[in-house]
Amino acid sequence: AKIGAWLLVLFQVPVTLMMHNFWAVTDPMMRGIQIAMFMKNISMLGGALLIAYFGSGPLSLDARAAATP
């Protein structure tokens, strides 16, 4: 899970900056949509960083595989 989370982080950073560049949009409606999508991606990035740092937890498939003999 940690490797997958790091891969998501590496994917999310450039995609968020390139695809949701709200600072370059002049239309107010589109700017609001792009800000919302940018913040959504930032929140997903934060979740991926938490999983990358702490792991997936005791109820995950990783923990179950490690506990099985």
Query: Based on CA inertia axes, which overall geometry fits?
Result: elongated
The secondary-structure class comes to mainly alpha
For this structure, the quaternary state is single chain
The domain tally reads: 1
Low-confidence stretches: none
Biggest sheet layout: none
User: What letter string, H or E per element, gives the SSE order?
Assistant: HHH
Round the mean pLDDT to the nearest integer and report it: 92
Distance between the termini: 20 Å
- Number of β-strand runs: 0
Proportion of residues in helical segments: over 70%
Radius of gyration: 16 Å
SS element count, helices: 3
User: What fraction of residues sit in β-strands?
Assistant: under 5%
Task: Describe what you observe in this structure.
With 69 residues, the protein is an all-alpha fold. The chain has one domain. The protein has helices spanning 2-19, 28-54, 61-67. The two termini are 20 Å apart. The relative contact order is 0.18. The model has no long low-confidence stretch (mean pLDDT 92).
How would you summarize the topology of this molecule?
Layout: H1 2-19, H2 28-54, H3 61-67
Helix pairs in contact: 1-2
Q: Could you list some keywords that capture this structure?
A:
69 residues, mainly alpha, 3 helices, elongated
What is the structure about, briefly put?
The chain has helices spanning 2-19, 28-54, 61-67.
